[in-house]
Amino acid sequence: MKQYIFEQTKLQLMEEMCKQLDVYCEFLASENQKYNLTAITEPSQVWEKHFADSMLGAPFVPQNATLCDVGSGAGFPALPLKILRPDIDVTLVDSLEKRINFTSTLCQKMGVVGTFIHSRAEDFAKTHSQQFDVATARAVAPLNILLEYTAQIVKIGGIVLAYKTDLQEVDLAKHASDVLGLKFVAHHNFTLPSGASRCLLVYKKVRSTPKQFPRGQNKPRKMPL
């Protein structure tokens, strides 16, 4: 099943990467109830809908990039990307300390190096403006909200890589992207072996994001751009 999934998604993994993902899958299953991380725990589903899905973004991440995953949860997409692309320097940010504890412990078990930050996205952005080449987000928020959480931390010329199922939100997020200094530059459609659709949206940062973004007091969600 693993081989089939990765053949179908045109991803090539070395033996050591597969061993690390086995550790990931086992630890996720054993700790999921404690941390409430995912509704998907059956191994073949984890390999397809978490691991392969996360890795679909790898071709669009520059070599040796600094990558920040906002709302990292159980580590998707940052940690599968890091396993497939060891050259990437990953930082995981999540508002729940228990999730950060999970990913930090997981990486120790897998022998993967990363930085783990317990913080709300809007607080993290205040001290990390324009520090990353790439920001990723998967299953975090509607696109206009997601862009506000991620735009500030990306360098000019860097990208926000948003994991979605289709293009539907792009038009609704146009005002947000304009305000935040982002330009929608590409989308990449994929179909997982189960037939599920995936769409990676690429935004390039073309100018500095105004300092008031992301707004505090949960305003991105209460009053979306």
- The CATH superfamily label reads Vaccinia Virus protein VP39
Order of helices and strands: HHHEHEHEHEHEHEEH
Q: How much β-strand is present in the residues?
A: 15-25%
Query: CATH first level: which class?
Result: Alpha Beta
* Strand arrangement, major sheet: 3-2-1-4-5-7-6
Q: Gap between N and C termini, in Å?
A: 42 Å
The amount of helix comes to 25-40%
SS summary, helix count: 9
The second-level CATH architecture is 3-Layer(aba) Sandwich
Taken from the alpha-carbon principal axes, the silhouette is globular
Could you please say which CATH topology applies here?
Rossmann fold
Tally of distinct domains: 1
Oligomer: single chain
Structural class: alpha/beta
Low-pLDDT segments, ≥5 res: none
* Biggest sheet descriptor: 7 strands, mixed
Radius of gyration, Cα only, in angstroms?
17 Å
List the topology elements:
Elements: H1 2-8, H2 15-35, H3 43-55, E1 66-70, H4 78-84, E2 89-94, H5 97-110, E3 115-118, H6 121-127, E4 132-138, H7 143-151, E5 154-164, H8 174-180, E6 182-191, E7 197-205, H9 219-222
Parallel strand pairs: 1-2, 1-4, 2-3, 4-5
Antiparallel strand pairs: 5-7, 6-7
Helix pairs in contact: 2-3, 2-5, 3-4, 7-8
